[in-house]
Amino acid sequence: MKKDNLSSTELALMERAQKVLENNWIGASTKPTSKLYPHQWSWDSAFISIGYAHYDMERAKTELRTLLEAQWEDGMVPHIVFSPEVTGYFPSADYWGIHRRADAPRHKKTSGITQPCVHAIAAYKIYELSSNKEEAKDFLKEIFPKLKKFHQWLAANRDPEGTGLITIFHPWESGFDNSPRWDEALNRIEVDRRLLPDYKRQDKEHVKDPNERPSDDEYDRYIYLVEIMKKNNYDQKNIYKEIPFKIKDVVFSSIFYAANQHLKSMAEIIGEDSSQIEEWIKATKEYFSETFSPKDEDGLFYDYDLTVRQIIKKRTVSSIVPLYTDLLTKHQAEILLKWLLHSHFCGTGKCAYPVIPSTDVHMSYFQEITYWRGPIWINTNWMIYKGLLRYGFSKKAKELKESIINLINEQGFNEYFDPLSGEGHGAEDFSWTASLLIDLICEGGM
Ligand code: 2M8
Q1: In the chain, pLDDT over 70 holds for what percent of residues?
Q2: Quick one: which of 11, 122, 178, 443 is 20 to 30 A from 434 by CA?
Q3: Which of the four pLDDT bands, split at 50, 70 and 90, describes residue 443?
Q4: Which helix (H) or strand (E) holds 81?
């Protein structure tokens, strides 16, 4: 890592960020934070690995290796890998009961669902930043087959339609748990109370205000969806037929596309065949805009609900995340920039910092401290920052980067922030806030 060009504030922040990661390190991986999320989470680990790659290559590699040790035989990378000795998280490993599926690992306890596939992006970052390219190539050789197998699983089970767009079966799979994006689909579900177990939430005990977390009604629906999966023994084909929540997720699909591009680059470096990856890339190119941003709309991107066959018209940060990919025309990207400059997404107006909130602040469903319904999250801002650079919007990119740095410097390494006051909420020392800040400070590029 080159430290010469960093300001004293950036250097001090780097040190604080590394301390957050150090405190959350649990021996072979990093938990998102100490009490609220005491295990390993899938997409968190990929973001975390990107941060480590700037100053500790071994940790960056270990983070991904540990996660992939829990990969299911069929290729699925689970969204949580449990630390067996840790209690106090619901739903627990026992609750998930993954033993009902032969493909689930026997030596690791995991959840039975997945999360966005940021991992190939992280693995490629490790290669890119390594000074010893031979060693880095060996790492790619080791990890490539596992990542490809995960993408094959996604393509086969979450995109049987061959659109290059990924379907989620649960809000937790999006990583945006209680986003307004999922409201209608969740509300449509008729919860069969006989199927709901007696359960006790633990998450609300670890935050300042229980209103920061999803509601009990939302939780019942989350658990009900897991019950349907358990009833189907985590068999993807049967779940596809039965689950009442089936959505083509615009963020997951953007990440799948970007991750495939990185996977393809890896294949080229290590001399592996990339034809299947190219097929996935081609399919996403063909279907992305026509599915998520139909003509005569407002230029934003929206998830597509497969159950009712319509787009989900909720104005959230996900509507802009496609900027992270190279899938947009200059014109499409310019429209997204306009949205970002507007008060809807804190480009101007009443927000404390010009940093992008998770929901358009003018919408009735915007809630400033409630998790994914309004607060600022660093991972989505990081993706959009990279997108702004990609499309040549350097002025806005510079402003966003500086504002993210100021926000964290002044408010802390929180999980999320109230866009109106800037105040930090959720967990206090959150790993991906730290790791992605490191990436922003050290690099800023793609
Ligand atoms: C949140 O999700 C978990 C469930 O997976 C939870 O609410 O308990 C989300 O913010 C998700 O994106 C994140 O990966 C996870 C751990 O940080 O927490």
Answers
A1: 99
A2: 178
A3: confident
A4: strand 80-81
Residue 36 class from Cβ within 10 Å (0-12 exposed, 13-18 middle, 19+ buried)?
buried
305 beta partners = 247, 310
Q: Six-digit token pair at 99?
A: 């033993």
| 319-343 CB burial, b ≥16 within 10 A, e <16 | bbbbbbbebbeeebbeebbebbbee
Is residue 289 within 8 Å of residue 348, measured between CB atoms? no
- Distance, CA 305 to ligand 1 centroid (Å)? 22
Counting other chains too, the contacts that 332-338 makes at CB distance below 8 Å and 24 or more residues apart are 332/289, 332/293, 332/299, 333/387, 333/391, 333/393, 334/391, 335/298, 335/299, 335/300, 336/299, 336/300, 336/387, 337/388, 337/391, 337/393, 337/396, 338/299
Is 1's pLDDT higher than 90?
no
Tokens of 185: 């689909």
Q: Are 270 and 140 in contact (CB under 8 A)?
A: yes
pTM above 0.85, yes or no: yes
CB-facing half-sphere around the CA of 177: CA atoms within 13 A: 17
Ligand 1 pocket check for 182: Cβ under 6 Å: no
- Peptide bond before 91: cis, by omega within 30 degrees of 0? yes
Instruction: State the amino acid at position 162 in one-letter form.
Output: G
224-275 pLDDT, tens digit each: 999 999 999 999 999 999 999 999 999 999 999 999 999 999 999 999 999 9
Closest ligand 1 atom to residue 427 Cα is: 17
User: 32 CB under 6 A from ligand 1?
Assistant: yes
CB count, 10 Å around CB of 148?
21
Statement: residue 446 has pLDDT above 60: no
Alpha-carbon separation of residue 215 from 35, 189, 420 (angstroms): 19, 16, 22
Band (5; pLDDT cuts 50, 70, 90): confident
**Closest approach atom of ligand 1 to CA 32:** 17
